[in-house]
Amino acid sequence: MIPLLLSLLLVAPPELKRAKDRFEFGAYPEAAGALRQLLAGSPHLTDAEAIDAYRMLGIAEYQLGDKLAARSAFVNLLSFDPDYALDAFLVPPAIVEFFDAVKRENEPALAPLRTRRRELREQMRLEDEAKRRLLAEEQVRTGPPGKIVRVEERVYLFNWMPLGAGQFQNGDRAKGTAIAAGQLVLGLVNVSAIVFHNQFAQDARTCTSGQSGCSRPPYSDSDRTLLGRIDAVKYVSAGLFWALYGYGVWDAHRNFVPRLETEITPSRPGANLKLEWTF
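Above: the chain sequence. Below: its structure as tokens.
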């Protein structure tokens, strides 16, 4: 039941989804009106969707007091599945009894439908069995396939990721390793410069205007020069990191192939393994 409901929610027409929402909230007049309009328009519904639509319509009409309309909806449901039964845990007992009575009253007309459905299922089973036998015999005559195509679907998002992810996906491991190593080193240098700058700024001795070597208090000229060099390292490493990231994104997009197909020739049974060394 749960897989059927999930499949209906995922692929059912929008009108059926809206009617189902109204039905689940107990808005039976709105649900019945939407379902009548949907079914009157000769929609292209699957058997499962049609059964669900007539089930909701029959229950909604019964709740609204129109048993003739409910009976008509249930008869339509049974025309798709003569063996259908309402779930007694989800449907009120009075409606279940009404549905069962409708099924019993129409049993003479449902019996041929049930027989025909069994015949169709058996025919489909025999058809599938014949198809499998045909393919198996063909494989015996022709042997294993001469080639196998391996399909690899690549992820576009990897082109925007750092550390050479796009290059590794494109098969360029050397370039990906170089980009990853460069970004790691530059990232560590940048973080270290930030931490060292903040720590040094807290621990540095302060000076006042007029002291020797204190042209720009509160730091001495020597300390300020060192802080400036640390700032330079911080900004240069950050700039190089983002420049390398930009190059990695550009290179990954330039060599990106969304779908890669590789032809593999399977080895024949008993074939010898041959190694060749080329210098």
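The first strand starts at residue 148 and ends at 153.
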